[in-house]
Design goal:
267 residues; alpha/beta; Rossmann fold; Arc Repressor Mutant, subunit A; 2 domains; seven-stranded mixed beta sheet; three-stranded antiparallel beta sheet; 11 helices
Length: 267
């Protein structure tokens, strides 16, 4: 469900049922991050919409309380149970478990819509790689994340559309969220923890993408894909300069990442 147009521009509204319907019909749409006020009523209303589609499709809706099931393995177990796959209690690594789930879903033609309620729980426990796993299999997985932490938007990859969710006349309405203004984006206070780590690493001098990944991993566990997303956001905000360094073959190309000297004095 990547590289799809935004469902609603800033200020525009769309119903949740219209936003998610294509996934239940076997088509692609955005992965969604919904910012909503904390409360059982909102979550139940969202689940009623999604469950209504589930009854007439091959999509399994898997609800996850991310504070209760706050690890990738715990979520994988919920997915496996939903598709009828029995997992051994021990003996398999997390990636092996995920591979087994994918194999079973492809065999049965199943698809899963993950509803990650309290999404910030995964980030709190350093388990947000789950999002990368699901987004990497967009033909099999869709994601609807629910959070009451508006700051989480700064840590979400570009595979997601971020929306404010409200109830209106019994309907769940999604309002497109405006991008943060460039003037605010360039201030240190607006940076996520991951972005600040990247800035600190390149302050000592330009780094290749490989060196940046290795140094980042020493400080925080994030997937390469997630780090690429953070670098991309910093580049789009003109805080970093990223150049492609051509190798002897395209497979050996790398990136040269450095601070934008025009912005360095503010960081």
């Amino acid at each position: 469900m990547q590289n799809t147009p935004a469902l609603a521009t800033a200020g525009a509204q769309v119903q949740l049922r219209d936003a998610i319907k294509p996934f239940f019909e076997g088509r692609q749409t955005e992965n969604l991050i919904l910012h909503a006020e904390a409360g059982k009523d909102m979550t139940e209303a969202i689940m009623r919409v999604l469950k209504g589609f589930e009854r007439s499709s091959r999509v399994k809706v898997v609800y996850v309380d991310c504070w209760r099931h706050s690890t990738r393995m715990a979520v994988y177990s919920l997915i496996a149970r939903a598709i009828g796959e029995m997992l051994p209690r021990r003996g398999l690594a997390r990636d092996e478990v995920f591979d087994r789930i994918i194999e079973m879903m492809e065999k049965d033609g199943a698809r899963v819509l993950l509803v990650l309620d309290g999404l910030e729980g995964l980030f709190h426990n350093g388990e947000e790689r789950l999002l990368d796993d699901a987004c990497g299999k967009e033909k099999l997985f869709g994601v609807v994340g629910i959070t009451n932490d508006a700051r989480l938007r700064a840590r979400i990859g570009t595979e997601f559309g971020c929306y404010e969710a409200t109830q209106l006349d019994g309907k769940i309405m999604l309002e497109g969220v405006a991008e943060r203004q460039d003037a605010d984006d360039s201030s240190p206070a607006s940076l996520s923890e991951e972005e600040r780590i990247i800035i600190d690493i390149v302050k000592t001098g330009p780094k290749s993408s490989t060196d940046l990944y290795l140094e980042f991993f020493k400080r925080m566990q994030r997937s390469k894909r997630a780090i690429r997303n953070y670098v991309g956001r910093l580049e789009s905000r003109q805080l970093l300069r990223v150049q492609t360094v051509t190798g002897v073959s395209p497979l050996l190309n790398t990136k040269r990442i450095e601070l934008n000297p025009l912005m360095a004095q503010d960081l």
